[in-house]
Amino acid sequence: MLNHSYWNSKEPNGIEPAEKPHEECGVFGLYGDDVMPPAYAAYNGLLALQHRGQESCGIAVNDRGVVSYHKDMGLVSEVFHPKDLDKLSGQMCVSHVRYSTAGDSVPENAQPLVMRYIKGTLAIAHNGNLTNAHEIRRELEHRGAIFQTTIDSEVIAYIIARERMHSGSIEEAVRRTMPQIQGAYSLLVMSPQKLIAARDPNGFRPLCMGRLGKGYVFASETCALDACGAEFVRDVEPGEIVVVDPSGVKSIRDHCTGRISPCIFEYIYFARTDSVIDGVSVYEARKEAGRLLARQHPVEADLVIGVPESGIDAAIGYSEESGIPYEKGIVKNNYIGRTFIKPTQQERRNSVRIKLNPLVTAVKGKRIVMLDDSIVRGTTCDRIVSMLREAGAKEVHLRISSPPFTWPCYYGTDIPSKNELIACKMSVEEIGKLSGADSIGFLELDSLCQMIGKQEKCFCDACFTGNYPAPVPKHIMEGKPEQRCTPVHR
Amino acid sequence: MLNHSYWNSKEPNGIEPAEKPHEECGVFGLYGDDVMPPAYAAYNGLLALQHRGQESCGIAVNDRGVVSYHKDMGLVSEVFHPKDLDKLSGQMCVSHVRYSTAGDSVPENAQPLVMRYIKGTLAIAHNGNLTNAHEIRRELEHRGAIFQTTIDSEVIAYIIARERMHSGSIEEAVRRTMPQIQGAYSLLVMSPQKLIAARDPNGFRPLCMGRLGKGYVFASETCALDACGAEFVRDVEPGEIVVVDPSGVKSIRDHCTGRISPCIFEYIYFARTDSVIDGVSVYEARKEAGRLLARQHPVEADLVIGVPESGIDAAIGYSEESGIPYEKGIVKNNYIGRTFIKPTQQERRNSVRIKLNPLVTAVKGKRIVMLDDSIVRGTTCDRIVSMLREAGAKEVHLRISSPPFTWPCYYGTDIPSKNELIACKMSVEEIGKLSGADSIGFLELDSLCQMIGKQEKCFCDACFTGNYPAPVPKHIMEGKPEQRCTPVHR
Amino acid sequence: MLNHSYWNSKEPNGIEPAEKPHEECGVFGLYGDDVMPPAYAAYNGLLALQHRGQESCGIAVNDRGVVSYHKDMGLVSEVFHPKDLDKLSGQMCVSHVRYSTAGDSVPENAQPLVMRYIKGTLAIAHNGNLTNAHEIRRELEHRGAIFQTTIDSEVIAYIIARERMHSGSIEEAVRRTMPQIQGAYSLLVMSPQKLIAARDPNGFRPLCMGRLGKGYVFASETCALDACGAEFVRDVEPGEIVVVDPSGVKSIRDHCTGRISPCIFEYIYFARTDSVIDGVSVYEARKEAGRLLARQHPVEADLVIGVPESGIDAAIGYSEESGIPYEKGIVKNNYIGRTFIKPTQQERRNSVRIKLNPLVTAVKGKRIVMLDDSIVRGTTCDRIVSMLREAGAKEVHLRISSPPFTWPCYYGTDIPSKNELIACKMSVEEIGKLSGADSIGFLELDSLCQMIGKQEKCFCDACFTGNYPAPVPKHIMEGKPEQRCTPVHR
Amino acid sequence: MLNHSYWNSKEPNGIEPAEKPHEECGVFGLYGDDVMPPAYAAYNGLLALQHRGQESCGIAVNDRGVVSYHKDMGLVSEVFHPKDLDKLSGQMCVSHVRYSTAGDSVPENAQPLVMRYIKGTLAIAHNGNLTNAHEIRRELEHRGAIFQTTIDSEVIAYIIARERMHSGSIEEAVRRTMPQIQGAYSLLVMSPQKLIAARDPNGFRPLCMGRLGKGYVFASETCALDACGAEFVRDVEPGEIVVVDPSGVKSIRDHCTGRISPCIFEYIYFARTDSVIDGVSVYEARKEAGRLLARQHPVEADLVIGVPESGIDAAIGYSEESGIPYEKGIVKNNYIGRTFIKPTQQERRNSVRIKLNPLVTAVKGKRIVMLDDSIVRGTTCDRIVSMLREAGAKEVHLRISSPPFTWPCYYGTDIPSKNELIACKMSVEEIGKLSGADSIGFLELDSLCQMIGKQEKCFCDACFTGNYPAPVPKHIMEGKPEQRCTPVHR
């Protein structure tokens, strides 16, 4: 019989650890209410951006200068009920979805951050990660600042508030703020009269602009424009500030340097496949990765399958290029929820089969090429390969539509430290052997340009190369800086 | 500005009506605890069966004759927490997921039904719909019975209790019960000592049997066996009773008539694609439907896409047969939740785009064949077709992997009455015109046999033909019998 | 430091065990809606009856023959929100509050029980305890009955349903039911057309009748009439059935035997002090008990105090009779809630001081007479006495406004078995010594008549005498019958 | 029949408006863990202080320098579960209960405020109201501060953080902070190493100190010391700062001016009757008020009653002085909850009778003196008087144990503006007439000294006299300052 230590003590609450890297946020804002109430547009937009963050979410609206907001832990569909949306009347909004990291998963950290400063109320929603947040906090603390959250938005809010004292306008304050903050940020700021969007000069995280009736929308991805019925206008340029107010739209490009480096992993995994980021279709990039893999790592096989959902696009591309038929070989259960209960006694193999189940009739006796988007810790690919073998697959050839991860990310994703990355500890051959696959092939680093249809490198691939396009302080590179510089409370 | 009648009054709570027919339940039972605690097996099994019912769920366990249970409204991942599973210790279990119908969505109707009768405690989980429940209720009421729920399990429980008085065993009572109940049922009964599975003589709803260590599992679909790590043994035969107790497994086949008629729509839509029902792979049946459509309704086109998720398998089959490349043309948002908020003001078109978004880069300028599994009320296909056209599709050819619905179902699904079925009101041509597609093609009725690889008809296709293999009382055929024979309370 | 076994393992969840006996239920019903909607009247009435049961509550309304209901675990103020009451439209209602016993604290047991039988829908609310429920269940099970709850209402429902088949009316069925059920019951039955109240021939539990506009109210206590603005009409007579329907009010007195025995402990502790039961003011009875104690157990003292809330009325009486000034000597914290968290490490003395705190300035240096209503297990009086001593009391004289408990109750309260009753194990002197009081005095058994102003005994005092006025089956007297005759599930 | 505008539109949600003034907070802190874990002590202490605030509550603990906290909307018994307390391990704590005002009832405003500043983490709990918070906010905003809440604690935190930069210790920073903040504050500050208590120089709000084992406790009232088993040591002096750290206890008295003015209304109504504030027993003060009233406003009568709970102590005093017997004349329902649902249709009279019900047998035919603590808006006393008359009272003489309210309070209670105070609009005679009482008498202003046993005035009675002992800015006196100076969001 079971005792009460039945649950795996290494995984508190019996909850499965994350197997893929995570984006840390998504933002959505709307100026204008002629088509629909901004809170409803935000609700639709956040639903479309939910893949970028499932921990908490929030909407702040501005009703003729008076800001109200609703935010809480949970999915968009859990946090917002019709009565909540109805209460959030206004003519513009900013909103946010946040990813659940293990550390500071607290209501205080939900966004947008709504705060009062000298010129009234500001609401700020932020996607990205500042690399000098620690230094700024220290400096602000030396001037008497207090911090109630551990989110970068609070740091940004302080600098904007400080700059606003010497600036003639909120946009000028944002313009003065940008040189002071380093790293990745796609930012929405709502003041009593204006909606402002800003993107860091590298353009690490995406940010696009659309039109909804007479109003303007800003969102992390174009799929959020589609969801609220907005027309895509253009991407916010890296370094650009876009201001919308009663007088119309204005662009400030002082910080546009041209040395842009949007995150390549948005194309590989983070973004929704139907989004178009900086002019490149995510879906086409993924299919192209599959085609490239078919040329780089060809193999004789009977069918091509993808690990759902993220491996499917590359699988279609591989099939197209190789002529090997595409098949659905694995079925994913969409009802698992965020807190899947996993008893320790249950074999690891079974645990995967609750989420992913092979289509025996499709794979039995077949030589299979299986596409996946990436390998981080290497904890699941062996389970999937052996699951297919048990289902009767004669051969399993693993193709990964990205190069091996060898460096952590400091720009707003949770790609972990080197000692957790399997590709830092093993060669490709060893990873292949560990996975149990008959062969393994990663996308070549050189082909990332081609994947997104560019002639030359114009993106951040630091997680594959260690070439960090924006400075990362030494203390961050060396350790766990967050534990040194942020309040430790729950 | 908006007033408080902003919500569509026809759709209370702003919740979208169902666009596809629904299965009404799924069952899972385990006898034996040598591999894992039965409650954990049930949890895994119910997660795998969640597509069969999302309203409520429950698990009843039997710990050396003492039954305890936990059931509630909500998804499996919402209703069960580790502490709940830990409390449910035992050596066997029965469990259930229930579909949310508009009518009696009340906690009382959650299953398993646990009740005390002359021989102790019984727990009953039931998938299907009795066609003579009304008659039996009336007859039982004439003998003094009282009813506290509106579920058929309560009717079955009464008859079993009555028959048990004249029977030497619980299985004998179940055997005597079966001739008295008509319609569709796949039934699990847990007595203090035994676990019993029974399937109606027509075999309308699926029920299979597996082995988990030394124990035995019964489940609506094989995907639930996979999820708990059980080996598939065989299907429970239509009309068969299988009894598991300390002495082993026993089969009672008195009611096996050979005139079986499992539901064909399980293959077309209800079941999970990785299940194998009565020897036929659901995935292969769906792909075959696609292949058949490619032969029955060929068209020149650039690519084949499926409406996610249910149209994708047939799309792969159509692509395979026609040689037209398969593409992912539409992306589905998995975060919508069960209570999507839809403002009336928002155009119908947008509402669909929150759930389904076209991959513009894939479909632009292309001639498209789009596969869907069925058309019930005809309320969404036009929106999807026009969404594709707006995304730039040159042509859209609609292919439906089932014949037109022309008759309601009385055997445990919610295919509605004739006046709601579009194919009862319009010809195929008219439906095509309404949809806005360039062409439309339904799977031919005659090819259903071939779809599941059979020589002759051995299934129920009443929803397409009106040939009901088990008697349906006239009063049910004519009206809304539930309002006459069941308690009206919430 | 503390480990995780900090909580007292003997008291699961750190919840304090009950220190006073508990009533098991309260009922409220209204026929008529001219003054206010019945659900609102029930809400007010149940709030007034909440002291009779805090586990679960429910309201069933009848809207022109259609019954709807809402019930759940929790207090009235927690279970019902305005939207719930608004949904419960109708022209009559029955409602219920239930006490939380340790055993079957499950949602299924919440009342009213709403069920469908041959003549339509019935809703039943019941206060009391049948002594032959076990026998009836067995007999009904032999006829094929199934039981889904462990409440007596289900047993009563079955008999009414059976009798209804041979009766011309629901009231006739109730009339035929009464001789078959033994023990204590104050019963409300709502049929499609009628509201029926019935009280057992002994009249163990109270039941009164009032007028609200043109309608009629029934309630366990008159305080519920006051709360909804109804005028008191009269008590329902022991053995009487009162029927209200469109034709007016009708009384059936066949079972009125005159051998009545209402529960004396309602006056001592259970009922609310502002209620009048069977013509006797509860408050006056309690004050009279205090006066009697002053005569039976006089003592020289400086002040009289009562243990809040139940000891205060007797204290006022004692003061009045003795001339010793009444003082508030102990303050009660009303915010403790039902789930007070008690760490084991904390001394028992402190635990009591969170609930009850002495008024040091009032008691310091004083000789005190302290009134309490009863001593059951004897677990708290010593703590209160020593608390007063620590606050500086010079003497503490304990006066108990009831005789010692020496017998369990089988008629609907939870006065426990003899081996838990301290007065079965110790003499009055020993109890006094244990309590640490300078003197102790219980109300004399003979003065109970005088307490309620009667010439002769006309009540049940079985808990003090063992003279059970209605038969109690031997198996119940001897053991733990509930574990033998009821379903064991949670 | 009822329509959906059944609810009174003037009282949203059907919730009764407050009829008594409210305290705005209670604080509790403990340094030391030798007797019990600080979180448990706080839990007990907050339960005892719950009458000071029922909107939200929180506990912050310090575990060797690391602060964790748990706070939420709701009662102490609702917000804290054993698992929450177990997680809050530490060696010291600060904690808080907050009153629910209509305005900013938001989770953000729950206390303690936990924040990070230059020297680490601070947790602050505050009872009182700063009169210059607006000015400080403006000044801080001019220096770049941002505000995320509308509570004074955030203002105090900023000043402490600023002063800490120029101070050698946290207590020095608190010392420098005090001259900058005006108005009422009883403050607890927990730094990584120290627990600090500070009380404003006027001593408006109470704050006492106790000993628990080797540790020290601070609490708003002595009843909280009793609840956690601590010994009372002394009151924190107005203007005093008490510091507890590993080296022991230290007192800083620089700001002790001797011009103290504790709130007289703490004795009349706010504090718990078993507390002793600044050396005066609350209970004795209340009884003395009753005695004084008996001398100031004698009347021939048969009995004295108090409006529960707050009028009872004065009634006992009046009875003692006058010789007229004390009686319980009105019974209070303790189960109403914080959100009593009041239908408009229901007469106002009934609404009161759900909360307060007369003891008919006690009051019938009697001449009654009824004691209440205060009259604010005058909205309920007429209902209680007429309720007694209907119950048969021959005469009702109203005695109020405080002078008439004629001025608002700016020091941390919600005594409202003059145009809501009935005594600003009517003479005592008119109030008496309005109430329907046969006579009315307020406590004379001059006797407040005597009430608390002092020779001369040493308290704040601004609400009766308009003599504000601490400066109140003109803009606050004139209007609704909160709407001008605080963020407007929910």
Radius of gyration of chain A: 23 Å
- For the record, what is the CATH homologous superfamily label of the largest domain in chain A? Aminohydrolase, N-terminal nucleophile (Ntn) domain
**Terminal-residue CA separation of chain A:** 36 Å
The pLDDT mean of chain A sits at 89
Oligomer: homotetramer
Work out the helicity level of chain A. Answer: 25-40%
| Interface with most residues | A-B, 72 and 72 residues
Q: Give the number of DSSP strands of chain A.
A: 21
CATH topology of the largest domain in chain A: Glutamine Phosphoribosylpyrophosphate, subunit 1, domain 1
Number of helices of chain A: 19
Strand content of chain A: 15-25%
Characterization of the model:
In chain A, the strands form five sheets. A seven-stranded antiparallel β-sheet of chain A has the order 3-2-4-1-10-9-11, covered by helices on one side. A six-stranded antiparallel β-sheet of chain A has the order 5-6-7-8-12-13, covered by helices on one side. The longest helix of chain A is centred in the middle third of the chain and has 15 residues, at about 280-295. With about 500 residues, chain A is α+β, with helices and mostly antiparallel strands. Chain A is globular, with a radius of gyration of 23 Å. The first copy, chain A, folds into two domains: about 25-260, 4-Layer Sandwich (Glutamine Phosphoribosylpyrophosphate, subunit 1, domain 1), CATH 3.60.20.10; about 280-455, 3-Layer(aba) Sandwich (Rossmann fold), CATH 3.40.50. Chain A starts with about 25 loop residues before the first strand and ends in a 5-residue tail after the last helix. In chain A, β14 and β15 (about 280) form a beta hairpin. Chain A has 19 helices and 21 strands. The interface of A and D includes residues 117, 118 and 488 of A. Chains A, B, C, D: In the C-terminal section; belongs to the purine/pyrimidine phosphoribosyltransferase family. Chains A, B, C, D: Pathway: Purine metabolism; IMP biosynthesis via de novo pathway; N(1)-(5-phospho-D-ribosyl)glycinamide from 5-phospho-alpha-D-ribose 1-diphosphate: step 1/2. Chains A, B, C, D: It catalyses: 5-phospho-beta-D-ribosylamine + L-glutamate + diphosphate = 5-phospho-alpha-D-ribose 1-diphosphate + L-glutamine + H2O.
